[in-house]
Amino acid sequence: MRLSTVILITYFVCEVLTSSPVIVLPPFLKLNEQNVITIVNEKSVKSVVQIDHGGEKTNKEIQGDVQMISFHTSSSQPTAHIMIKVDGKIELNTNIPVRPDLFNVHIHIDKTIYRKSETVHVRILPLTHSGSIYRGDLSICLVNGKGFVESSTLRTRKVDETNSMIIEQLEIPSHTFFGDWVVKVQPVEIGSKRSDDLLTFGKVFQVQDYDLPNYRLYGFLTDSSNLDDTKITIEAKYFHGKPVNGSVHVYCREVGSSSQDRSHLTHIKSGE
């Protein structure tokens, strides 16, 4: 009886002193990239790692105290099942999400209010969790004021090896809704039927029916007997003082001429 008690106590002490392995998993598996799982044991043992991702199966056996398993994922399924046996004992049996390694997308547009038929000039900078450029395919589109995707603006783009961002032009349809619109960007891999807020990025702007403000146009002329030496200064400003951006063409015609046909006029200068 005393011997049995000693053996039982010894068994429990051994169980307490023998700690479970430390298994280091990433927060998610990176789609179409290499992933790493690390297992740390107190001594050299055999581990079996089984991964099932949308029919893609990985089964690896590894011996040692510090074990690193590297594998690739390419299935479109949103989760993968991982089971890890260490020294014959199941230490992990769980599902882990799978998604593109896209951490943030910076979206810049040329202004905040547009009219119908205007073009939205967009610059897109996608970044991974490590801060590098994300070079996977991105779906880019405009979402109108009613929450529907404008199919004519749907694009698939990616940052190529020679650039650091995507530059795109999206035209607002002539017959559409007013209100808050969104430049929407998300990875192509998640598909149109999946919704993942962590992988959907947007930039809000407004579409309104507005008129451009009036402005004053000033002209200054320094006359010269030689037409080519004539100096002309054109200045356009809004009433609040801000300059007007635009192009100007200056023509010259004979005194007393009333013709509006520009083919009879002498083109002096063009500029901005």
Automatic annotation (TrEMBL):
Entry-linked Pfam families: MG3
Keyword Oxidoreductase: no
Signal peptide: none
Domain of life: Eukaryota
Keyword tags: Signal, Thioester bond
InterPro entries listed in its UniProt record: A2M/Complement_sys, MG3
Domain Macroglobulin: 229-262
Segments traversing the membrane: none
PANTHER family reported for this sequence: CD109 ANTIGEN, MACROGLOBULIN / COMPLEMENT
Protein name (Swiss-Prot/TrEMBL): Macroglobulin domain-containing protein
Classification of source organism: Eukaryota, Metazoa, Ecdysozoa, Nematoda, Chromadorea
